[in-house]
Design goal:
single chain; DNA Excision Repair, Uvrb, Chain A; Immunoglobulin-like; 8 strands; ubiquitin protein ligase binding; S100 protein binding; nucleus
């Protein structure tokens, strides 16, 4: 029965109770009055409970939505620098300062960090950097959210040490690009390696010049003249 109908019944029982004079009738009407009041109370409690559950569900949806909304995008728009204590990585994400603080999460290990930004313009952005050049302090590392930027602060495990590269992989790639000189070989063999590289990379004129110099050098050596 609806609460409105129960309230009407209660009012009518109260009117009858005021007019009743016989004890038996009064007792019956009093019992009915208590019964209706209990029903009304139970209805109100159920209504309040449903309302509370609805509010809880709305709050839960608000928390879950940023996690499930949109799709994940890998971010590669960043730069970095360093101080004596920190390596600082600046990740550019337009509007990131407008999302809730809990939507920007960073997980650190001694040699990596993992950034996740949830529900930014309908997308989630991630950036994972593994094999940092040197160890960092997990407890001392943190993040800051600035206008259109997330700043990752990796605290150096050993301060006052210089990082020439952000990651070990970057270091290895850069070193492969440098000409390799074997310091254990004598100077003449090192020179030959340099001339060989120049010859391979040079144009036809350069190759003819090196060929001519090579022939003249061999002729002088065969005559016992080592001067150039």
């Amino acid at each position: 029965m609806a609460s409105e109908e129960l309230q009407k019944d209660l009012e009518e029982v109260k009117v009858l109770l005021e007019k009743a004079t016989r004890k038996r009738v009064c007792d019956a009407l009093t019992a009915e009055k208590s019964k209706i009041e209990t029903e009304i109370k139970n209805k109100m409690q159920q209504k309040s409970q449903k309302k509370a559950e609805l509010l809880d569900n709305e709050k839960l949806a608000a928390v879950v939505a940023p996690i499930t909304t949109g799709y994940k995008v890998k971010s590669s728009n960043y730069g970095w620098d360093q101080s004596d204590k920190f390596v600082k990585i600046y990740i550019t994400l337009s509007g990131v300062h407008q999302v809730p603080t809990e939507n920007v999460q960073v997980h650190f290990t001694e040699r990596s960090f993992d950034l996740l930004v949830k529900n930014l313009n309908g997308k989630s952005y991630s950036m994972i950097v593994n094999n940092l050049l040197k160890p960092i302090s997990v407890e001392g590392s943190s993040k800051k959210v600035k206008t259109d930027t997330v700043l990752i602060l990796c605290r150096k495990k050993v301060k006052n040490t210089r990082w020439d590269y952000l990651t070990q992989l970057e270091k290895e790639c850069k070193e492969k690009e440098k000409p390799s000189y074997d310091t254990e070989t004598d100077s003449s063999e090192g020179l030959m390696n340099v001339l060989k590289k120049i010859y391979e990379d040079g144009d036809d004129d350069m190759k003819r010049t090196i060929d001519k110099a090579w022939v003249e050098s061999r002729e002088k050596q065969s005559k016992g003249d080592t001067e150039f």
